[in-house]
Structure formats: structure tokens, C-alpha cells
Amino acid sequence: MTEALSIRHYEATDRDDVVALWTACNLVVPWNDPLADIALAVSKPNATIMIGCAGERTVASVMVGHDGHRGWFYYLAVDPACRGSGHGRAMVRAAEGWLVEAGMPKAQLMVRATNHAVVAFYERLGYATGPVTVMQKWLKTDSP
């Protein structure tokens, strides 16, 4: 039986465990420095990182923030050994709750097109692909 999940906000002492979790879940890519992403999220009042713990062990996380118009999820991660336990669903619900408290009417997220299992996970939670094109421009000169 999977240990119950308790969810709380990120603390500085969580940093190494969170980066290890994101790495184990293949969420870390060369163009996104996880340490910089964590530092940015926790330095802003419109973002947070939520941590899911089973006992003393970090087994899940989600970064959530908003732009004043809609909310966004990033780095939803569940330890591969704990998948299928409902921890991902619990983390999404916690992030949604944080956004509701912030007054956001909508939550959005991005999934790599090749990650079909994650798309199916979000569809089961009521998320749908929207008729939008996501465009980007790197503003940092050291980005790809």
C-alpha cells in the first residue's frame, strides 16, 4: 500500500530533493536550469512550489503560478516508484486550489508533444487541448 501523501509549500531545504525528483522524472532539460527555475518561482508572490511527501520523503511536486489572467502548472512530478497512487491527481488538485485562492479562473499547462502518457493523465482530470499555438522567443542570450 502506498503511504499517504501530505502536501505543503516548498522550503529551501527541499531544493536538492526537488531537483533529484525532477531529474528522475525526466523533466530537466539543458535549456531550463532547475535551480534558477526554483529560485525564480519562490521569489515571486504569484508563484509557488508545492511538495508532496510520503512520510519524510519527497515523492511529488508541482510548480504553479499565474500571470494575473490565468494559472500555469510546471514541473508536475511523481516519483516513478509511486506512480498510480493518486499522488499526481492530488498535486494537480492542490495547485488548482492555490490558483482558485489567487482568483484565477483558468489553469493551463504545456506538455511535450511526444509525452502521450501525460496528455492522457491530464485528459482524465478534465483538461483538453485548446485551439492555440504556443509561440516562444528566448530572451536570454545564453539560451538555445
Descriptive overview:
The protein is an alpha+beta fold. It is built from 4 helices and 5 strands, in the order E-H-H-E-E-E-H-E-H. The chain has a 5-stranded mixed β-sheet, sandwiched between helices. Helix 3 links the parallel strand 4 (71-78) and strand 5 (107-109).
Shape call: globular
Radius of gyration: 15 Å
The mean pLDDT is: 92
Order of helices and strands: EHHEEEHEH
In short:
With 144 residues, the protein is of the alpha+beta class. Helix content is 30%, strand content 23%. The longest helix is centred in the middle third of the chain and has 15 residues.
What are the main properties of this structure?
144 residues; 4 helices
Question: How is this fold's topology laid out?
Answer:
Blueprint (H helix, E strand, L loop, with lengths): L5 E4 L5 H10 L9 H9 L4 E8 L2 E10 L4 E8 L8 H15 L5 E3 L6 H9 L20
Parallel strand pairs: 4-5
Antiparallel strand pairs: 1-2, 2-3, 3-4
